[in-house]
Amino acid sequence: MSSLKFALASSFNILKTVRSNTYPKRTIFTQFHFKLLKGRCVLPCRQSGSTASGAEKGEDTVLKWFLLLIPVSTFGLGTWQVKRRQWKLQMIADMNSLTTAEPINLPVDPMELNSLEYRRVKVHGRYDHSQELYILPRSPVDPDREAREAGRLSSSGESGANVITPFYCTDLGISILVNRGYVPKNKIRPETRMKGQVSDEVDVVGVLRLTEQRKPFVPHNNVEGNRWHYRDLEAMARVTGAEPIFIDAVLESTIPGGPIGGQTRVTLRNEHMQYIATWYGLCSATSYMWYAKFIKGVRL
To answer: Per residue, what are the HEC states of 102-141?
Structure first.
């Protein structure tokens, strides 16, 4: 709303300036050129006022249609945001459908994996708890809260870490990386949650994730200190000896006493409705001011 107020104030100031200072006043000077013609001084004709009046009218017309660009442009921007919002909602719906679809067997072909992000997959095997990695700080996923806080620089709530554990797939003969889920600060150390450190073979359903590029202002990963701030699959694979394949365990795969699964964030920033209201509101206000000024001749 602050951007709308600023835009409205700017447009009002423009039109106010147009009203009060449309053109500099012209003073028509009578110039006298004295010429000696047959011994007499002759006064030339006075400069025509109709020429100046026509120039003013022409400039008025140019300014009138130039200022019409403001409501036209803001209408176009509002319509563009409507389309952007539809695209964003469809993307969110597609991601949600992938994360809730029936799981498939984990493929190992890298080319196939690259096209399956957010797809649910299933694996069978056992965890290697001796090589846990920690992505932090993290807060537990709450889709409703994240939709409200999308786009903010900070979020509220508790802080902890996501526990990343190598997982040996007995049916595939390879180790992958599994984000077992969220733990609060006081449960980051493995000895504080021994009940969840199972050694038996288990079935895990997870959401396939690809490597993540470091965003601006996000710290670099501290590999030696085991403090990770974003998913760097190549680096994680080198440290653990696993393949650069990463899945987020779903909530149903949570082991009692262990990290809480279901930590896949699928909420995208969606503030297009605010932009739509801003641009269409600005279009309406500037259209009215333009009509009142140039069509009805109202002094703003």
So the answer is: CCEECCCCHHHHCCCCCCEEEEEEEECHHHCEEEEEECCC
